[in-house]
Amino acid sequence: MSSPVIEAERLAALHALDLIGTAAERHFDAVCRTARDLFSVPIALVTLVDSDRVWTKARCGIEDAFVSRDIAFCAQTIESDAPLVIEDAAADPAYRDNPLVQGDLRIRFYAGIPLVLRNGIRLGTLCVMDTRPRRLSPSEIGQLHDLSEIVLAHLRLHDTLRAKTRADLALSDSEARYHSLTESLPQMVWVLAGEERRTTYRNACFRSYYGEDGAPRDIRHSRNHPDDVARMSRVWMEAVAAGRTFEVEGRLRRHDGVYRWHKLVMIPVHRDGRVAEWIGTALDIDDIIVARDRLSQTSDLLQLAQQAAGAAVWEWDLAHGVLRHSPESARMIGLDVPPGATTVTVDANHRTAPIHPDDRAAVEAADHDAIRTGAANFGVEFRVLPRAGAGAGSGSCRWLMSFGRIIRDEATGVPSRIVGLNLDVTELRMTREALVESEGRLRVSEERLALALDSGSDGLWDLDVASGAYWLSDRCYTMLGYAVGAFPGTVRTWAEMVHPDDRAQALRTFEDHLAGTSAAYECEHRVETAEGRYAWILSRGRVVTRDGEGRPLRMVGTHIDVTARKEAERRVNHMAHHDALTDLPNRILFHEHLDRHLAEVKAGRGRLALLFLDLDRFKTVNDTLGHLAGDALLATIAGRLRAAVGEAGTVARLGGDEFAVIAPAASGTQETAALAQRIIDAVGEPVDLSGRMVTIGASVGITLAPDDGLTAGVLLKNADISLYRSKAAGRNTYHFHETGMDAAIADRNRLEFDLREAVIGGALGLAYQPVMTIADGTVCGFEALMRWRHPSRGMVSPEQFIPLAEETGLIVPLGIWALREACREAASWPGDLRIAVNVSTLQFQQPGLEESVVAALAASGLAPQRLELEITESVLMHEADSVIACLTRLRALGVRIALDDFGTGYSSLSYLRRFPFDKIKIDRSFIWDIADPDAAAVVRAVVGLGMRRGTTITAEGVETQEQFESVRREGCTEVQGYLFSRPLPAEEARAFVRERPRRAAA
């Protein structure tokens, strides 16, 4: 019986079809009539198995619409995917007392095919019944199975239509929910459709703001604030032209005439390459804007106060003609500050009264110039008269530096106020005068320094700024390879010797120092040597003399040859950004190149392709021939990749045997596919490693920008997923990124996790398919085949989980377990029956295979002659010498060796000459096409080869009597396939042996 979970799922699927108790349908009736006539039986039924009844959806030969499930043969048919055939129910102890046999119907014969909607979901049967005993041949069972496929097709169509109806209802409910949500949002939402951009939807907030009936789009645009119309229209037209999202802040007039600030966002919806509609939202941000303006007004003063701690703040209100001082500012300029006052306000017309008479004109001129020219910031230095009627002598005055900033009206742009601060710079002035006095002493010290430098290894220079005369010490000439005085001593001559790429930067740095914006001149640049090369020079200097107005007069400095240091820095930088083995860009430089190329793509300048590639079978070479050979192989492959990609692309080594390529993709996939194939072809060429020819492959994953993404993270993930797809597809190929790959990878990862759990928990099992002797029809042995029943997926195909086990390495413990289990089971069979076990390529690459075989034989007590190891040609394609040596040792123990899937590889005949296989198994593809003369010729040739070498020839996959007759006619000695038996559980395999004769021991 099915488990309760599976039965519940089956009943749910049955009831979802809504077919029970419905009217007759012609296509089901037609199948029943065809089955009745085809098999010459009185009764043919299409049944649906409910929880307690079996319903007849279509029937011929009976009138009842249902029968109790307890007595129905169909209820037993759905217990498996295999047909149920009862040749004589009256003679079968399991059925002879059944009411259907003993009652009015007098059923003697029954044959039913389960209707499997999907894995484990068997809804009912297509069956035929007769009142007399009879048998069905395999071909007749196949015909009944074909008719059942017609019934299944209609059931699946019905299932699809019902699912679509449910999906349509769900979509309708979803649309209603989204409409309710939009109506309840606190911001305006609307939709514009078509090229004319007519409004097709307005939510409640929209209708409330503009009025219940709304207004045409052009009228709403006229309701924008006059100062915002031009700006908002310009941004809107740019967004429409580019088909991109529109975002802007502006004031919208409500239906009652009030303007409020809103944040507008309109998102285009693209269909078939064009904008089909716009979805717009408008969020009221008026309160935020008002608060922001207030904060801006106060932050100006705060910012200046923070920049100069302890400074005195003032504000000049130009509109009202008043000047507001902070208490500290008022005290600085000699004003009285009332107790507790936070500001001192004075008439702006009297603002210069506390200033020294000699400085008032300069202060007024600075104010007027700032207001007239619109300068954002200005400053002026002046003296303040002492308080309490003190004299105006310079000794009793304080020096102040006043800074100001013009604040403009946001709407008109006209200056509305000036904010500023005052600093007491009296001590600074005294320091400045002291510096001027010490300038003479400094000049003497610098000249002494120049003499010391001139006698050392550094060069000294002295520049007359006004005339351009440029004096150089002897060392400046000799460090560049010139004779002393070889070129004119002018600054122009030196500038012409500077490398063209460095000239602008050197000149700009030089001019910045002359202008007083830097404390010293320092610049590294290249200068032409006497040999025509360029040497790196570190040039340092300082203005040592200025005139009374601060203009530079004289500048002195040094030249230092730093060529060796720059070359060392270049080498270090190269090593930091390149792979030491291949000299390709490393991961750091690769990401820099990728970011730079993506910036170009984002700017609309072209497309790029990102390719990830792994070297197939590199690990085998590295493990077998050693790391030195592996390094030589990587270096060779790197050179081939450079040649295949060319100058237009970037090749990087990311680590191990992982490489990446960035290449232009102007023509999209066609150009990139050609590049990927060139890479695969180049990598696939044989490599000579010290006289040993090695061949490897490459798996490539490809993603394109902007097609698949515009960020490095997204593209790297896409390329990695595409690479995995290529490796899963058999390697040595390439795949582009496709939508849905993420889901496929996630499903594959879940299956890998479940497989690991199954291996740990011992959830896999073996099935045994009989191998028959053609000459006398006896059983000569079984092939052990691995099976996995997943708790939720049902039976997982070996074609799905065996490659996954190969890739993850799980095939090694699985292979050891299968060998041990198969030998244990075979030991319980009669003494002459053989057991065949498949051995994977990975088991030969890992140590311990021979020990596993010996251990399995010893633990089970099975004679070595009864064990047969099946290998494919792919095993021999890698390290053939070591594999053949291993096979020879196993054969010496008495173990038989069979070559499986013969004819699907590349070098079969050469391996047949090198190793005496006990058996050759012809691949099922040739057996299925044996009616084709070419396939028959291959089978005939293999049989002839086997006869000459004394090798047993087994035909795999025989499913029809015609195929059996053909392989017997061609001379095959053994046969295996569904014509004789499907793979059986161990107990059924033992029963199969008991029921059939066995051949004598060979």
Q: Termini distance?
A: 42 Å
Class inferred from helices and paired strands: alpha+beta
Q: What integer value in Å does the Rg equal?
A: 46 Å
Helix proportion: 40-55%
Largest sheet: 8 strands, mixed, barrel
Low-confidence stretches: 390-394
Number of helices: 33
Judging from the principal axes of the Cα atoms, what is the shape?
elongated
Looking at how many chains there are and whether they match, the oligomeric state comes to single chain
Arithmetic mean of pLDDT: 85
Strand order across the largest sheet: 30-31-33-34-35-36-37-38
Topology:
Blueprint lengths: L3 H14 L8 H14 L3 E7 L3 E8 L5 E3 L4 H5 L6 E3 L12 H4 L6 E10 L2 E10 L7 H47 L3 E6 L4 E5 L1 H7 L6 H6 L3 H17 L3 E8 L5 E13 L2 E11 L1 H22 L4 E6 L4 E4 L1 H6 L11 E4 L9 H17 L3 E8 L13 E11 L6 E10 L1 H29 L4 E6 L5 E3 L1 H5 L12 H7 L2 H15 L6 E8 L5 E13 L5 E10 L1 H15 L9 H16 L5 E9 L1 H8 L1 H19 L4 E6 L2 E7 L4 H16 L2 E3 L2 E3 L2 E9 L6 H17 L5 E3 L4 H21 L2 E10 L5 E12 L3 E3 L1 H11 L2 H16 L7 E5 L2 H5 L3 H12 L6 E5 L1 H4 L3 H13 L3 E7 L5 H7 L4 E4 L1 H5 L4 H17 L2 E4 L5 H10 L3 E2 L10 H10 L7
Parallel strand pairs: 28-29, 31-33, 33-34, 34-35, 35-36, 36-37, 37-38
Antiparallel strand pairs: 1-2, 1-6, 2-3, 4-5, 5-6, 7-8, 7-11, 9-10, 10-11, 12-13, 12-17, 13-14, 15-16, 16-17, 18-19, 18-22, 20-21, 21-22, 23-25, 23-28, 24-25, 26-27, 30-31, 30-38, 31-32
Walkthrough of the structure:
The chain is an alpha+beta fold and 1002 residues long. The chain has 33 helices and 38 strands. An eight-stranded mixed barrel has the order 30-31-33-34-35-36-37-38, surrounded by five helices. Strand 5 (109-118) and strand 6 (121-130) form a beta hairpin. The longest helix is centred in the N-terminal third of the chain and has 47 residues, at 138-184. It is elongated.
